[in-house]
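In response to a reviewer's request, we include the raw inputs and outputs for one of the modeled complexes. The four entities were modeled together in a single run.
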Amino acid sequence: MKFSVDSKGVYPIAPTPFLDDGSIDRKSIDRMIDFYNECGCTGLTVLGQLGEAPKLDATESLDIASQVIARAGDMPVIVGVSAPGFASMRSLTRDVMDRGAAGVMIAPPNTLRTDDQIVTYYTQAVEAIGADVPFVLQDYPLTFSVQMSPNVIRRIVTDLPSCLMLKHEDWPGLEKISTLRRFEKEGSMRHISIMVGNNGLFLDYELERGADGANTGYAFPDMLCDVVRLKEQGKRDEAHDLFDAHLPLLRYEQQPGAGLAVRKYIMMKRGIISSAAQRRPASPMSELARLEVDNLMRRLARHDPRANVAG
Amino acid sequence: MKFSVDSKGVYPIAPTPFLDDGSIDRKSIDRMIDFYNECGCTGLTVLGQLGEAPKLDATESLDIASQVIARAGDMPVIVGVSAPGFASMRSLTRDVMDRGAAGVMIAPPNTLRTDDQIVTYYTQAVEAIGADVPFVLQDYPLTFSVQMSPNVIRRIVTDLPSCLMLKHEDWPGLEKISTLRRFEKEGSMRHISIMVGNNGLFLDYELERGADGANTGYAFPDMLCDVVRLKEQGKRDEAHDLFDAHLPLLRYEQQPGAGLAVRKYIMMKRGIISSAAQRRPASPMSELARLEVDNLMRRLARHDPRANVAG
Amino acid sequence: MKFSVDSKGVYPIAPTPFLDDGSIDRKSIDRMIDFYNECGCTGLTVLGQLGEAPKLDATESLDIASQVIARAGDMPVIVGVSAPGFASMRSLTRDVMDRGAAGVMIAPPNTLRTDDQIVTYYTQAVEAIGADVPFVLQDYPLTFSVQMSPNVIRRIVTDLPSCLMLKHEDWPGLEKISTLRRFEKEGSMRHISIMVGNNGLFLDYELERGADGANTGYAFPDMLCDVVRLKEQGKRDEAHDLFDAHLPLLRYEQQPGAGLAVRKYIMMKRGIISSAAQRRPASPMSELARLEVDNLMRRLARHDPRANVAG
Amino acid sequence: MKFSVDSKGVYPIAPTPFLDDGSIDRKSIDRMIDFYNECGCTGLTVLGQLGEAPKLDATESLDIASQVIARAGDMPVIVGVSAPGFASMRSLTRDVMDRGAAGVMIAPPNTLRTDDQIVTYYTQAVEAIGADVPFVLQDYPLTFSVQMSPNVIRRIVTDLPSCLMLKHEDWPGLEKISTLRRFEKEGSMRHISIMVGNNGLFLDYELERGADGANTGYAFPDMLCDVVRLKEQGKRDEAHDLFDAHLPLLRYEQQPGAGLAVRKYIMMKRGIISSAAQRRPASPMSELARLEVDNLMRRLARHDPRANVAG
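The model returned the following structure tokens for the whole complex.
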């Protein structure tokens, strides 16, 4: 169950629950972590891109990470430590590792372009946080404008033994997973865990390409867990049936920028968190959008009763 | 049925069919245009981003446009004339308008940033092609890196009466359509046709927000036509059911870069074109990807018999 | 002498002096501030882009700002507070304002594209830091990839009364200054201070276009002060002669990325700071580059004896 | 004197002279080519980024290239063939090679990011134009947003024997030249000609780092020729003196976007071309800008009598 190159399953990206007045909703944090545990999640990630980390001050960030780690029990907790400079990355890393984090996740700054620049950045990041701190490499070109070729990922994995997991969110990304797994088979790259992000939009086929699971925040992590499990059990059609039933809603939640509001709204409707509030600046959700999500859930409920919620 | 601010329905983005040796497949062009006509398409667009226009020389481009226009009959034909300079944009525009095109489509060069730069670019483009040539404004930030706010679109529509249609491919884009339709209702912008692109990934809800139809290349334009028609007839659930059945495949085809190979492969399987060949440089389709598409079509065929194809 | 819309003269961007072991060189900070004072600088900016702010942890940043403010005496001190989120921007702003800063400088995040996005960002930033905190608007497209048209600057200046100064580093930028000053003359924008950055590469003509001075880090702030003074005295040719003598070196220091090493090397040679050390990750300076700077200074010393330094 | 990996000296980037009515000024083309010849230029480049190539239609482009080639006599002529697609790149290349061009110049499309993407692009371009056509690799990140590391350049040079010259316009770029020349010394890269662009802003030190000359359009190519010659003769200080005298004007002309108007204005004042007209869309030159250039030339004339022109 620990965080390693053999990690499998689902590591949800946890949102940060707020009360309507903007204060941190500590009760919802506990409820959400318990929910992840009950779903069968094998780990989780906090303070990521969609955890509204930039809207938290340093004390709050550490408090949240601490509460999550304490509540998570056996589930390893990864903490997002991406920062504009290595000084703050290092200090946040030290603080959360001291409190029991299993590792950290590092996204590339969006100024990186060449292969060498990307490899150098991660080399320096590891130098800053310490080579003993396990880290997740986040590959998300759509958001960070940084394109990592399979060769670059191989160089990072080879040069930096503390890289244990790839959060794969390239798009299109199916061939990339195949290429990385081929590198492993050929012996030109050591094995790492590959967990898919991008709200799981291609989870169905990414698992067949060699992904180990999902590391993303879709508001039905229980569905993600089911799909991973069904695939493992060889129940391919059942996995696709379940995934396809969720796809209309999942696609809606995956919209960049607008997605977090949708995610929190669904999690609130499901009773996982008590409010959909975001801290400012928030991307608001219009009344029409709420009606659209209600409709999507109503339609989903015909196939998955978990979507059958009041409200 | 002519191209105007009141255009509705489906204008497919036509691919350019090639034979396996890279020569233009003129028979498939005719068959494809006939197919569009039989589907109930209300117009079509050629030489767009996914029509492999940059791989054609000037003579070929004009030949294809001419053949399409001749075959299209009553369907108005829009021709993509985006070019690195206004000289070639003007000369291609004149040539295709002479041959009977209904209008042209212009995408922004990806160096534009500020609102003023975007408005100025379209002003100069209209100056170049002539204010009497109807044009489609292509708003596709994901591909062109140019972000047009609703205000910018309103300025272009207001300043340039020859702008008749918006090819809307912003993502997320639902609120944008609502905003533009609100501008019209308020009287601050004249009415234009809004057709959605982006492979129709949000067609289901974009129609409800006020879009007039689709201007995109999904390999089942007949489904797009059906969804538009069902919505018009008030059969909302039927429209969603049909759309949702296609969504797993549609999403797969929507992958940037990789999508054209998928589209041509499906159109070949459906018998619309005789080969999936692309001219070089092509984004190839792996054997695994073909198997995935086969599986997606097999699953789709349970809901839509049109996907039940041999091969 | 206070920071206001009428600020003129030179506000150097102060580097952060380090000892060779990477610790903060407090003695050099005092010496540097005294030097700025003796040169006739009218204010200064700390923790900017080239102050290696991201390499400092929160405590160090605040310590440096406090020391600088205490030492600066009558010179108003602006503190760079650009941050990935408003929470840290607010907390740093509060801390430095409490310690006597005159205001803060805010750069745009490089994800902003449309005019509305830029205006909204600054509106939210002011909401976060408080409308009573004077701020400098940094317009530096080359580094931040954000292009602010004159209209956008006018909207920000109009909407946000706490915007007192523009750090103008657009390139080309001469016409932009003329346009902004024309806005003021026409009465469509209130007056603000415009200080030029970009290492002062066009200071000579930017002053004639209406700039009030320089807000940049060239290693000869005394030259910048002289040029501003000579222009004010109407000694145009003398101003150009002095500026032109510095231009070969100034251009060399203005190289993006590589420039900070050059700047610190020159300041060390001039005895202003005791070491040219940068914290890691540093852009190193090759032996050849050092010889080139030595040659540039030797050549400059023929015209400006201040470049005649041992070492 | 032919175009080869041993090319040295100055290859100006020729502007396209227009008459005030926008028609091509054929007399000025001849006069300009003769002027380049008399200056001692060793070759030249036409239809480049600053040759307003996108404003020419296909016939005009070919006519201009033909006239230039005919007039250039012994000077090898390179033709810019960058295009959005390989089809038009190939056809323009064939046409100009047939008419006697010495080679072509290819800039990267600004969508390229990873090392592999860049190498693949040039591989495909060579496939399109033919491996027997000598080409210049244009490395200009500021304009094209494509960053080529020294490793990428080495891969291209190694894989593609028809790459004879690097038009080096990276900025900063001094260390890059040193690295490439070190690769050659180490035997890990074959020798190629390196000519600097970027208006020659660092020509003085780039020559000392190993550049072979300049491939840029500064309005005083005679100065560029002199500086290259003086350096070759070991007259280092004289070379710097001459270069430094031009630097204030050269920097002014180097402004992106605005620079072409300045260049044409100076060339007109020097009597090389008869009009400074640009085809639309043009970046205009304000009256203030003209006065600034007049002043810069007046000041330059004190050191270089060639700047002493009437008008």
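As requested, we also summarize the result in words. Chain D has a mean pLDDT of 96. The longest helix of chain D spans residues 236-253.
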